[in-house]
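Preliminary data (for renewal application), 2-deoxy-2-amino glucitol-6-phosphate complex.
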Amino acid sequence: MCGIFGYYSTNDDDSAFEVIHKGLKRLEYRGYDSWGISLLQPGGIKTYKTTDGLDKKPDKPAIKANTGIGHTRWATHGKVTKNNAHPHFSTDGSFVLAQNGIVENYLELKGFLSQQGYKFTTQTDTEIIVKLIEHWRKKTPDLEQAVIKAFKKLKGRNTIIILTTENTIIAIKNGSPLTVGIADGAWFFSSDTLSFSNRTDKAVILDNGQMAVLDDRGLRFKEIATGKVIHKKPENLDHKQSKIDKEGFDHFMLKEIVEQKNAVLEATNYSLAELKPLLELIGHSRQVFTLGAGTASHAAGQTAYFLRNIAGIKAVELASYEVSSFAEIFDKKTVVLAFSQSGETADSLEAIELAKSSGAKIVSLVNMMGSTMSRESDLEYYLRVGPEICVVSTKAFTGKVAWGYLLANSLRGKFTVTKKELEATSSKLGSFLKPKLFSQIENLSKMLVKKEHIFVLGRGQNYYIAKEGALKIKETSYRHAEAFSAGELKHGVIALIESGTPVICIISEDEEKQNMLSAISEIKARGGLVIGIAKKDHKLFDKFIRTPELGGLDSLANVIPFQLLGYYMGKLQGFDPDKPRNLAKSVTVK
Ligand code: AGP
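Predicted structure:
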């Protein structure tokens, strides 16, 4: 959550404000409650903060600068106010600080600092860090030492960046991501590499417990545990696919929905040889767990379904935030397939750390390059579906499901035939993702947006599609949408159905079809309004959305109407589907 950015130039280009503002724009998916930029100027550090969006062109400070830091916020402690926006000042104005993370022991530290006489002017946990540094500076005048001492007192996943009046930038990583981009006479500190990919593809990615310091003596890295200087080799990042542009679409969400016809092929663009190490790993394993959070947990569920149903593998899906009870179950014969668009989701990182500590092998499928999850994995695979900017995940989900399908079929020796099936799937999705479908869904949205509660039913291959569908509607339209297995209906859910209650039912031409139709007639008997997502219309449907027949990958067609429903229901209410309220794209705190 939150995005931090820093810029340091010896080129005298005076463009720190513009560069940092651009960097924050590219980090906005990490939180958009408020933002701020601090610049080192002849008279000291000047800070600009606002709760307006980053789109709103700010009245730039008069004086230009070569060094500065910035922050875009997802509020964890304290309301969304200008005063709580980062960066936060030290009492003597000698440094400012911005943070990405949560200080879990902030109340305890605040109590200690208050006893020392420190006063607080914000509601943030961040200000605690500033005061703690001031406290240690009284004991050791060396700011770097004081920062290390203070940082070691923090509990939780935190990354901080500091700008000092000595034209120095200090940054430390523990949990939340931190990278340093290196160009000619210019350096970019950031939460992700994408934010400076338009300026350089050379970057150092810090690991937990590492610190970067940049001043007129140059850039150096230290281990905060020992204070020792460490060597960090810059990496060349493949940013070929890093174009961030709406390409004429109103929103990234619609563009990324349409890009799913390509995502199916981009995410499965692997040779059998490249999949072989994973096929062998699973072949020698006793059990496979798939895991992820939010949308990634639904892709993990769909992949586990494919591994059981197609490959007969003992595979179980886990939601990252409910893994602790599996600690005793993970062992050396366990393979964990971890799914993540960002590769930085705190719950998923902690889940793989737990599995790893029991000897499990970690295999990750991630979209963002250079992520912590890829670096922590024994085997890493990439989605390569291009940047997903909209907070609401669509093409990354489709990519993960297509990859899981290829994996399951490859375990059954069907790699080549499945590659052909994926080609066909991509072209069928291309014919499906047309304005005719968009206007049909937009019309349906006009009715559904008036409904307070919406239910989504699916079974078998469509169970996780129902869950993902409900999530898409919730995220963008702020309507209560809830998914159930249709099998659950008579065990309680049907009590919620009354006259006019909308129930979206997903039906594939598979072994669950009859069960779905039985459930639908029970809903109709209670006056429910049934919206059928299926290959063929049916007299039980009040509304019908035809999806293309994709055989074993039918789930990929069936999720699209929900993505579009969420999009139009949000848009119809004047919401920004790319930046839904209270959400952020990468959840780096637990
Ligand atoms: C999905 O639209 C949401 N953005 C959210 O549920 C997301 O899937 C979840 O936070 C996991 O993110 P990840 O894939 O980056 O790990």
